[in-house]
Amino acid sequence: MLRTIATLAMMVVLFSIVSTGCRPDDAGTTASTDPALATAAAPVVKLAAPQDEGQKEQIMPRIADYYGNRRGALSLTFDDGFRQEVADAREILDPLGLKGTFFLIPMHMENPAMGGNMISWQQAKELHAAGHEIGTHGAIKEKLHEATDERLGFLINESWRLIREKTDVTPVTYALPGGSRATENVRRKILEKHYFIRSSAQFPIMTTAGYGNTDRRQWDDERTRQRIIACRDEGGWFVAIIHSIVGAGWSPFKSKDEFRTHCQWLDSQKDTIWIAPMGTIGRYIRAREAARLEVIERGENSIRLSIATRLEPADVFQVPLTVVIPAPQATSARATVQGDAAPANALTTRIAEGNILVDIMPDGQPVTITWSTATAD
Asked: Hey, CA dihedral for 268, 269, 272, 275, is it positive or negative?
């Protein structure tokens, strides 16, 4: 009898853990230190009550792990904001349509002693206008985890304030300067203004990797490709950390062509790897985790559903989520908001590997998806 009672008690504890979805992060603290997770939970799918017995076996839509139902994600991040580094990176990325995250050191940009080595605020605006992300970085001289609370707040929040004031862009991502550790206190201070940190302490699915050559590391393109593919196959998010492309800066490549060849290979992998700035991928992940998908109505070749999330602020987390609808026989599909056939309310749909993919805003608006099949009259 005692063994039975103990077993039942253990089952209750396990059910409680699974139900709350509580999982410690890398530093041994719960993800509740992230304000974006205050209302986040695992994606919920609510099904309408079946109208008849046959509908119980019908399709089960889901929200894709990554945009476009890709298997993994990758972000190219560039540290410091040196003028030559940014120019070289854009020379390679822009023709390929690849977008990166550029972590700037605002205090260096404001410092005349840097001798014009940093990009200007106007060039930062141009980066943003070209579709790249501007993030916040810190100077390497001071280790954040050793700073007092007052100094820590100044180092992080003043950099954030300068970027917003000078560019009219509110940065949402932060990269710790070299030598600083992402302690709980440092993460908490960063997350007062930012939402995403380049650290697996916040995103356990993230793998970071330094690019280029140093005294202790030689660039190996083939090995890096293998790491990226392995990360993709595990459903992970690979984040490249890049400094100089060529020249006297930290961790340069042997030539621009060395980095260009790698980026051309990345471009060839875009069908299975979502390549986007850090903030773009971070927004999607957090919105997906907090989203609630509700199936409202079903038909033979149609489904009506909605997605909603309570994450705030909406201007950060209202981003399209890819809904995957299994439909092996579908040959064409159409999705409209509120069933309105007006072109302005038509959503982008595509068919891939037996699934209908629809990008839907998590704003609670009902969306109707209809499709034709090869056997339809």
From this structure: negative
Q: pLDDT band at 44, cuts 50/70/90?
A: low
Q: What is the CA radius of gyration of the chain?
A: 23
Q: Taking a C-beta distance cutoff of 8 angstroms, is the pair 67, 105 a contact?
A: no
* Amino acid letter, 302: S
- What is residue 208's three-state secondary structure? strand
Residues 6+ apart with CB under 8 A from 377: none
From 343, 347, 352, select the one nearest 367 (Cα to Cα): 347
DSSP H or E stretch at residue 52: none
What's the DSSP call for residue 279?
A: H
Calpha distance 333→320 (Å, rounded):
18
Query: Strands, DSSP E only, in 112-253?
Result: 133-137, 173-175, 196-197, 206-210, 237-242
pTM exceeding 0.90: no
Q: 260 near 290, Cβ under 8 Å?
A: no
CA pseudo-torsion sign 354, 359, 364, 365: negative
Cα 185 to Cα 182, 191, 192, 201, distances in angstroms: 8, 10, 11, 12
Other Cβ atoms within 10 Å of 316 Cβ, number: 18
Question: Which amino acid type is present at position 304?
Answer: R
DSSP bridge pairs for 237:
73, 206
The residues near 339 (Cβ < 8 Å, ≥ 6 apart) are: 304, 366, 368
- pLDDT tens digits, 196-238: 999 998 999 999 999 999 988 899 999 999 999 999 999 999 9
Distance from C-alpha of 154 to C-alpha of 162, rounded to nearest angstrom: 11
